[in-house]
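Sequence dictates fold. Below is an illustrative record:

_____
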Amino acid sequence: MREKQREETRRRLYLAALEVFRRDGVAACRIDDIAQKAEVSRAAFYFHFPTKEHVLVDFLAESEAPTVERLNALPPGAPFEQVLSTCAEGLAAFWKHEAKLLVDALTTSLKVTTVLEDRDSGAVRAFMANRFRELAGRGELVTAVPPEVLSDFFISYMLVALISWAGAPTTSLEQTLEASMQLFLHGARPSTPMAAGLKKK
């Protein structure tokens, strides 16, 4: 019973924080405002979250759900381009509604986590690393770098595209991510001149 109450309080604080973030921005948001919104004490907030930025870490983890759901629906032998396109579509499905929090969430994640952490620490990263291994085994990727590293390159492409779009959304997020995916894909296919040059080195 007590554990359930803790979970409910944490969730209430989490949702209240996101609401205040969207209204005031993360930098201007005060912990007191979040606690008041959630109808709990300031101490209760710090019991559940070390800082307000840690709310965004949870938010970023939750943002992976639409992408993971789409990726898990792919057949085991899905072509390279379909895997990349599905990942881009999942990211767009979530973030096009959360543009105001996108940059804060991604930059906060880089502050409190590290890209050197275990690849299984993020659902999308773990899925893509596994798929890139499979694709490499089928000869659908260049061999200049390990498939897990190439997977991280792709995810980095997507994150940079997300941040760029949030700063100046001149096209739809779907179009931005699709263009970035195609840019990555052009250099990753073994049949391209760039890939052929990499293989010779």
Remarks:
- The domain at 2-49 is CATH 1.10.10.60 (Arc Repressor Mutant, subunit A).
- The radius of gyration is 19 Å.
- Confidence is low (pLDDT under 50) at residues 194-201.
- Residues 2-24 form the longest helix (23 residues).
